[in-house]
Amino acid sequence: MDVKVVNQTTHEMQQLTQTVERLERMVTIGQMLNSTLDLSQLLETIIRTAAELVGTQAASILLVDERTGELFFAASTGSSREELRQIKVPIVGSIAGTIYQTGEPVIVEDVSGDSRHYTGVDQSISFQTRSLLGVPLLVRTRCIGVLEAVNKLDGGKFSEDDIRTLSTMASHSAIAIENARLVASLREANHRLSELDRLKTNFISIASHELRTPLMIVQGFASFLREQASGDMTSDLDMVLRGASKLQAIIDQMTNLNFLESGLSELKQEKFVVQELIGEMNEEWQPLAAAKQQSLRISMPSTPILIRGDRGKIHLALSNLLNNAVKFTPENGHIELHVILHTGRVEIAVVDDGIGIPKDELTRIFERFYQVEDHLTRHHGGLGLGLCIAKEVIEQHGGRIWAESNEGQGSRFRTILPTLFEHPQEA
Ligand code: ADP
Fold first, then answer.
1. Distance in Å, CA 369 to ligand 1 centroid
2. Closest residue (by CA) to atom 14 of ligand 1?
3. pLDDT, tens only, 248-286
4. Whole-number Å distance between alpha carbons of 36 and 283
5. 72, 255, 340, 366: which could join 347 in a potential S-S bond, CB 3.0 to 4.6 Å?
């Protein structure tokens, strides 16, 4: 065979092999770019690979600063990367700026003869740019920056193949950069929100705790004085008690919120007698019911009923039921709390003759923030958390809670909790 033809074929084979190698590399890079969301690691990979694939001394990524509209070096190979980071490149009067504005690749074989070349960079880092291939980083039609490969090795020239390779890299890279940036900004926003949330939870926790004791003193003395009072003093003291009960409801909501966010998982395991807890609650709630001229009647079996669980949390759950009963029952209404012993279980039912609940809302009211009344027209306060908390607590204790009601005909909230010992069914 003719020697010339053999050489020609060998050369073509070599070129083909190189192209296949580049393509294989591109596929691997594409997969790699899609698999990392760490922005700085991503940029490093892009520039290292770009310089290697196109065969240049260095490579850089310039991204646009959305605030100032200038380009800055987000990453670069070589030893001066820290200095480069400080340098801003103007959009008008630079090759990168031209690529950014036109969205087209640019090859400059000799930058010294190109008036667009921004010499500020080379001066600052004592680098000499001779030749350059730059391509836009496009996310759909939006340009987010420029990928540059600088100084073709061995004094060679950039080829059409180099443009294609760098442009393909740039299109993969732009999407990966955009995704990584989105994830980074989401992470940052999330971090800020968690910090704010932590501060809010701390504040609510401290505030509700600090308000509770003085409020109990006010309630205690006001009810005592109300019992002794006569004449105008009676209605004045009723007003004080009503105000205090509103304050109590607000503190309860704060406790609920705090509770929901901090410690549902940690349940204390205390043995306690149900009747003792209900007795305490009776004392707490009598003045609040009285402030609305409501009667609160308690019925309990005499046999002490022992349960194991988190007394504080069960107290909170039942308080939420009583709070609703008082809130959703008009003045002069009737509230009852029944403790009923079943085999191995105790039922605690809170019954009222208040506004009642529509049948189709009886399950949804246990959802977080759910309220039957429209928030724009509602007459009752609250955050819609009380029942959700009560349900969580009761279920964590292996119990059950549900509501029975008809609209306008009062409600019955039934709670079942396992008892510690099997009690014989009471007659
Ligand atoms: P909140 O009372 O703060 O609104 P809850 O989770 O305790 O939140 O209750 C959710 C909703 O269920 C209330 O907004 C109310 O519409 C309804 N509800 C709860 N208890 C009663 C009740 N005893 N009588 C009538 N409606 C009630």
1. 10
2. 371
3. 877 877 777 777 666 555 788 999 999 999 999 999 999
4. 61
5. 340
